[in-house]
Design goal:
The protein is of the alpha/beta class. It is built from 5 helices and 5 strands.
Length: 152
C-alpha cells in the first residue's frame, strides 16, 4: 500500500512539474497606437550595472514593443551616458543607447550629479536629456504621468 501511494504521489508531482514547463504564455494586446505601459527605469549604479539594465530594457521592448520607457540616471548611474563611455569589454554604450532610443526609449541625466561631481554637461551624450534632479524626475513621472517604477 505504501509503495502504491508513493508511486501515485511521484506521478502527481511529475504531472504538476510538467504542467509548469509546458504552460502557455498569453500575450495581452493594448488598444491600437497606445503604449501598453509606461515604465521608468531607475539607474543609479556604475557602468557594471548599466549593461544588465540596458539588456532588461531591450528584453522589455521585445516583449512589449509599444511600452513607453524612460531611463532616469543619477549618481554613478550617469556614467554610461557620458561621452566615450565603454563597458568592460570595450564596447561603446552610445551604440546601445542609439538602438534603444530608435525604439522610443528616453534617457535622462541628473544635473545635481553633474554639478556635485564637477562634470561638464557637454560630456553627456546628445541622446540624453539633462533634468534638474534625477530623483525628482522619477517622482514626477510616477505621480503626474502614471509611470511604473522599475529598479533593475
Amino acid at each position: 500500500m505504501k509503495m502504491v501511494l508513493g508511486k501515485v504521489a511521484l506521478a502527481s508531482l511529475l504531472a504538476l512539474a510538467g504542467g509548469c514547463v509546458t504552460a502557455n504564455v498569453t500575450k495581452v494586446e493594448a488598444p491600437k497606437g497606445a503604449a501598453t505601459s509606461k515604465v521608468v527605469y531607475h539607474v543609479n549604479e556604475g557602468i557594471d550595472k548599466a549593461v544588465p539594465s540596458l539588456r532588461n530594457i531591450r528584453n522589455h521592448l521585445d516583449a512589449e514593443p509599444k511600452a513607453k520607457i524612460v531611463v532616469v540616471t543619477h549618481g554613478p548611474g550617469i556614467d554610461f551616458l557620458l561621452d566615450g563611455a565603454k563597458d568592460k569589454n570595450g564596447n561603446p554604450f552610445d551604440v546601445t543607447v542609439d538602438t534603444l532610443q530608435a525604439r522610443g526609449v528616453e534617457f535622462r541625466v541628473c544635473s545635481n550629479t553633474l554639478v556635485s561631481r564637477g562634470i561638464d554637461p557637454k560630456k553627456v551624450i546628445p541622446q540624453a536629456t539633462i533634468v534638474p534632479s534625477g530623483v525628482a524626475e522619477i517622482g514626477r513621472l510616477q505621480t503626474t504621468e502614471g509611470f511604473v517604477y522599475l529598479k533593475p
